[in-house]
Amino acid sequence: VSNAFSLILFMFLLGPSIPQIVRATKTILTFKMGMSTDLWPNVASYLAFGMPWFDGDPENRFNPAVEKWFPSIIMIAGIVVVVGLVLFGLRAWWKTGMAGRVIVVGATLSALLVYGINLLSGGTVFTWYMVYLTPVAGMTFGLGLSELLMFRSQASGGNVILRNRLLLYGIIGVYAFVVMKPIKRYSAISKQAMRSAIELARGGVFPFTEEEMRPITAGWWTSANIYDPYLKVAHNKRQLGYLMDKADYEKRPLYFILGGYSHAMAEDASMIALLEESGEFETIRVFPGLDQYQYRQFVYRYRGGKRKK
Fold it and tell me: 20 to 30 Å CA-CA from 198: which of 140, 191, 286, 307?
């Protein structure tokens, strides 16, 4: 009964989004890219350390990734710690009885189900689809640490309390040192520098001054309109051409902000050619993002008066 009632509430909230989801999966190429071979290593690494295993943007020196720091002793030690905690955590889950086993098996099967459905339908699974596994991973680490200390208490002689304290401090210290790297990067750098892009184009973010309202802003594959509600979405040359004519007629600067570069290129390469090869625009800044190349924000400025009809 409780499950049925929860389903009713869930469908009531999700229902309006279903037609949009169906349309998006059919029309947006991003959802038809197929499965990445990096998926499972990255999912495991995110759950363990809060960063991907593989570097999705190697040119970005700020991008956190396990493979970037893997040769270091501390990174290897962190992996050993996590593997140990997972093994002891699974042992602890098993010892809790049916409830614990259902949690572990259910979480595993649900992840495989998401993967299998998308694999058979030709869809794509992104790492953030597995974010719901985070609480299970956290509990597994906690249970694993507790189980390890109990195991050590039973197997060790001498001053057990002192040894367990040293082991506990060592594990926490190693793990904290490893996760400190991505935490500092994610705290200091925006995953998508949309605010910075708007500040570059207008000189500030909403609410704008009269001077900051003068530029015309447009974009595609970006959510920079969070900081600029006047930003126009232009995802084809006809729409962008209209804004270029408007900028020429009103003698106003025009800035175009592009995110999701590879996805935009796959959808309409001619738009990228207009921005980068026509001579009508200049690239004034590329803001690095985090995790993947697609999270970079490209800012273009219309040169003005050079509209090719």
Answer: 307
